[in-house]
Structure prediction request, 252 residues.
Amino acid sequence: MLRSIIVDDEQKSCENLKILLEDFCTNVEVMQMVNSVTDAIAAIQKHKPDVIFLDIQMQKETGFDLLKRVSEINFEIVFVTAYAEYAIEAFKFSAIDYLLKPIDINDLKAAVEKLGKKTADKLISQKVDLLMQNFKAENPENYRLAISDADGITFVSINEIVYCEGSSNYTNFYLKNGKKFIVAKTLKEYEELLSNYNFFRIHNSHLINLKEVKKYFRGDGGYVQMSNDEKLDVSKRKKESFLKKISNNNLL
Prediction:
């Protein structure tokens, strides 16, 4: 049984989430519902929860204010937010779970299912720090991405990525500094995450950072030479949209 605390300045929101957890997530026990940062700190000390469902924007404080005041983050966090879609990217890049208001039952179930896999306290704190950095970034292109590999989680600025290579259910990241990371996620997942930040899928196997293209060589589909001198094919069906993309953005 996972012990939880709900932190939201709207009592109705607290009660709605509690009902959903009781009805659809029977492995989660709500120990307390609180409406302020001060009360949340007291509840954490009292109940030592496994997870906190935390509203970001409260009337006078934020969920981040709570996390800054907690001496040790040794619990999982699921943010609950009504933020506009653009801000949701910060959560995705930081690998922290979130729920959009009004809460979708399937999203809630998926978030709770992940909670069964306990994350090391150090990694939770690092992901929270990354999330706060991403929220503070004036330009989303300055976001950093949490990359989970066999050794843990590496935090990488997206402008440090040269390209990503898909292989079955895995993705290889190639960085400017020559490092390579293998992640157990599909290339499609990263395409959806990075396509708004000057990344383009030129082939079934490759998602490239358009700013790292050194040269394009013409051909049936042609190929690109990246900043690390790797040469990657452009598929025939992607050629037209690729050339349009780099032309519109003056990238070559």
User: Anything to note?
Assistant: Helices lie at 11-24, 37-47, 63-69, 85-94, 105-115, 121-136, 187-194, 236-248. The CA atoms of residues 140 and 193 lie 12 Å apart. The two ends are 56 Å apart (CA to CA).
